[in-house]
């Protein structure tokens, strides 16, 4: 019996196997007819994987808006929280439109080495995902990545919005909301894309041999230097400096909120840096490693620096330290060893603490440390690339070796020129932009509104309305006073439980 | 009737409330307050700038009782709220003109029982 059963089972399995093999063969034949080239299929699959990675990275970078909103909200007072949320929400919304209409064309459209000048509204000719010589279109600066145009756009858009949103924290608690909206548009439409064109759009800094892998200078310094100009033009918050000019503490209303914001940003950076490969490349793991080490060492550096100089391991300084490390490693992340990344992160973490204190004493009132984190540490990281770039970590035909690894001064010089050029550009355009806004619509709210808080002044609603007198409604707890109808029931609903004759006629 | 108003350390609230419960006093009103007295403030640092907090967090409890219970309530509060360090707070005893229970309209001592 047993032998018979086994024989039957084997036969059945063989039949099923044969049938499966036949079906598979047929499928394979059809597939081969439809896809004459296996290479083509592999290329298609690579394009799809690249697209998925670029989009996932773009979504992570988008989420950094939440990180910035929470960081800035936590480090400012409760009376300005709605205003900060609205600024972070609206700079992304306005930035999305501005970068789609104008910014992307100025940054990546074909033009000269100063400015791109084609492909407005994302409607230029383009045969992406074709790459290299096979590419035909007006966005040739991006022809090195084999993903569709929309993937390129979405990834670049979230970067533009990051540059814009950096400023909101530095100018927090006193900037007119309407003015901030105008600023957001100008930055994502013009100021940021032109810098971007110089470095990533085949412009003059790229030709000079300056490298900025994911935007220490292009994104972060641009935002940081604009924040510096905006903050100086605004002046310090009321109460920030004593009559003798000594800086006073204006504690943020929620350090836990700021901490959550920083952790969100840290996660977002795993899209920001490894995503800048714009391909599902094995190097994303290397880039994630350098990115993470720099963030960790940034935290440790700021922790030690604040512990030694301020007596306590300062919470908000350590949060800034994480971001300082992340900003600094953004340019070199793909070109340096893990050890170099750790050194760069540590340096940024220490520098950010003293930069915050010095700016505070210099009467630059930046409530969240955006100028120090993004401006100063962005410059630090970009220049560090000129020192620490190392063949073997850097892909072939990119940076080559930096000064410390025998590459000479050439890269360091190009990096420094890039930092200075972007600083100069941001100072000039920032002065023009904020200057014009100051003499026309004004950039600062009235002192009365600033004291009362921008939540109520600008938006008419507190973030935490915990004591609200509502108008007595139709339903109220027992008693005759409020509703004019006492039915003896705990929940009285006049017109429902005891309808008046009028309601029936 | 008398109102016993005590300003105490926030961390002593649980003990005081439990001790009052034990002697049958259930009616109590608690408020978070800030104040200063002999206990000096303390200094905090925020992003490198020092600032002094001169008003300290305290809890105010209010209990209204018939006159014959006053000494007992004061004793219980003083015993349970005391640490012996500066900053234990104060007790104030204040006469109350009348009391009305909103639900029933009872007045005087029977309104606070």
Radius of gyration of chain B (CA) equals 17 Å
Average residue pLDDT of chain A: 90
Domain module count of chain B: 1
Strand order of the largest sheet of chain B: 2-5-1-6
Mind describing the biggest β-sheet of chain B?
Answer: 4 strands, antiparallel
Q: Detail the poorly predicted runs of chain B.
A: none
Shape of chain B: elongated
> Given the structure, what is the number of helices of chain B?
3
Give me the CATH architecture of chain B, please. 2-Layer Sandwich
CATH first level of chain B: which class?
Alpha Beta
Helix content of chain A: 55-70%
Gross CATH architecture of chain A: Orthogonal Bundle
Task: Report, as a whole number of angstroms, the end-to-end distance of chain B.
Answer: 11 Å
Q: What series of H and E elements makes up the topology of chain B?
A: EHEEEEHEH
Report what the structure shows:
The complex is a heterodimer of chains A (about 500) and B (about 110). Chain A is an all-alpha fold. Chain A has a single domain (about 45-460), classed as Ammonium transporter AmtB like domains (Ammonium transporter fold, Orthogonal Bundle), CATH 1.10.3430.10. Chain A is about 60% helix and about 0% strand. Chain A is built from 15 helices and 2 strands. Chain A has helices at about 1-35, 40-75, 80-110, 150-170, 175-200, 205-210, 215-235, 255-270, 285-310, 315-330, 340-360, 370-390, 410-440, 445-450, 455-460; strands at about 475, 490. In chain A, strands 1-2 form a two-stranded antiparallel ribbon. In chain A, helix 9 (about 285-310) crosses helix 11 (about 340-360), helix 11 packs antiparallel against helix 12 and helix 12 (about 370-390) packs antiparallel against helix 13 (about 410-440). Chain A is globular, with a radius of gyration of 29 Å. The model of chain A is unreliable at about 480-505 (pLDDT under 50). With about 110 residues, chain B is an alpha+beta fold. Chain B has a single domain, classed as 2-Layer Sandwich (Alpha-Beta Plaits). Chain B has 3 helices and 6 strands, in the order βαββββαβα. Chain B has a 4-stranded antiparallel β-sheet, with helices on one face. In chain B, a hairpin with a 2-residue loop joins strand 3 and strand 4. In chain B, helix 1 packs antiparallel against helix 2 (about 70-80). The N and C termini of chain B lie close together (about 10 Å). The model of chain B has no long low-confidence stretch (mean pLDDT about 90). Classes of the chains: A mainly alpha (about 500), B alpha+beta (about 110). Chains A and B meet through helix 9 and helix 11 of A and strand 3 and strand 4 of B.
């Amino acid at each position: 019996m047993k032998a018979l059963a086994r024989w039957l089972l084997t036969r059945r399995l063989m039949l099923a196997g044969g049938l499966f093999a036949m079906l598979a063969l047929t499928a394979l034949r059809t597939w081969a007819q439809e896809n004459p080239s296996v290479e083509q299929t592999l290329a298609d699959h690579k394009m799809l994987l690249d697209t998925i990675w670029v989009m996932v990275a773009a979504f992570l970078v988008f989420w950094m808006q939440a990180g910035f909103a929470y960081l800035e909200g936590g480090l400012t007072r409760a009376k300005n929280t709605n205003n900060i949320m609205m600024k972070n929400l609206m700079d992304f919304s306005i930035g999305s439109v501005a970068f789609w209409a104008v910014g992307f064309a100025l940054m990546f459209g074909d033009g000269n080495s100063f400015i791109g000048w084609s492909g407005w509204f994302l409607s230029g000719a383009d045969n992406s995902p074709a790459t290299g010589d096979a590419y035909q279109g007006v966005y040739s600066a991006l022809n090195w990545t084999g993903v569709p145009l929309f993937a390129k756009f979405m990834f670049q858009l979230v970067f533009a919005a990051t540059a814009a949103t950096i400023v909101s924290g530095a100018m927090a608690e006193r900037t007119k909301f309407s003015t901030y909206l105008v600023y957001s548009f100008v930055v994502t439409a013009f100021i940021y894309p032109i810098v971007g064109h110089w470095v990533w759009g085949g412009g003059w800094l790229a030709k000079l041999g300056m490298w900025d892998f994911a935007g220490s200078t292009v994104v972060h310094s641009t935002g940081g230097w604009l924040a510096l100009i905006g903050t100086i033009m605004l002046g310090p918050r009321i109460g920030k400096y004593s009559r003798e000019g000594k800086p006073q503490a204006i504690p943020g209303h929620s350090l836990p909120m700021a901490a959550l914001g920083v952790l969100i940003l840290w996660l977002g950076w795993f899209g920001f840096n490894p995503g800048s490969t714009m391909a599902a490349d094995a190097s994303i793991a290397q880039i994630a490693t350098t990115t993470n080490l720099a963030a960790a060492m940034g935290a440790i550096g700021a922790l030690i620096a604040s512990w030694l100089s301020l007596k306590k391991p300062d919470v908000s300084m350590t949060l800034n330290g994480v971001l300082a490390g992340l900003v600094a490693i953004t340019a070199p992340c793909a070109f340096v060893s893990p050890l170099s990344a750790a050194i760069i992160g540590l340096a940024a973490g220490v520098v950010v603490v003293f930069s915050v204190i010095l700016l505070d004493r210099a009467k630059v009132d930046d409530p969240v440390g955006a100028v120090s984190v993004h401006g100063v540490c962005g410059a630090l990281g970009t220049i560090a690339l000129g020192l620490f770039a190392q063949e073997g970590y850097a892909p072939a035909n990119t940076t080559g070796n930096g000064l410390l690894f025998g590459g000479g001064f050439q890269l360091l010089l190009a990096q420094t020129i890039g930092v200075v050029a972007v600083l100069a550009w941001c100072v000039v355009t920032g002065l023009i932009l904020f200057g014009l806004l100051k003499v026309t619509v004004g950039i600062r709210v009235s002192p009365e509104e600033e004291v009362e808080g921008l939540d109520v002044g600008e938006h008419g609603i507190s973030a935490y309305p915990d004591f609200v007198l509502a108008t007595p409604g139709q339903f109220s707890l027992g008693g005759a006073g409020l509703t004019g109808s006492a039915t003896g029931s705990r929940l009285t609903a006049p017109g429902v439980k005891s309808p008046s004759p009028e309601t029936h006629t | 009737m008398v109102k016993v108003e005590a300003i105490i350390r926030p961390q002593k609230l649980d003990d005081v409330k439990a001790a009052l419960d034990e002697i049958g006093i259930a009616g109590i009103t608690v408020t978070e307050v800030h104040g200063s007295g002999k206990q000096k403030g303390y200094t905090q640092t925020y992003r490198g700038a020092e600032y002094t907090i001169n008003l300290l967090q305290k809890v105010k409890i209010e209990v209204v009782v018939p006159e014959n219970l006053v000494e007992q309530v004061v004793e219980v509060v003083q015993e349970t709220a005391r640490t012996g360090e500066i900053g234990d707070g104060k007790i104030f005893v204040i006469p109350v003109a009348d009391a009305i229970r909103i639900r029933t309209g009872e007045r005087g001592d029977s309104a606070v029982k």
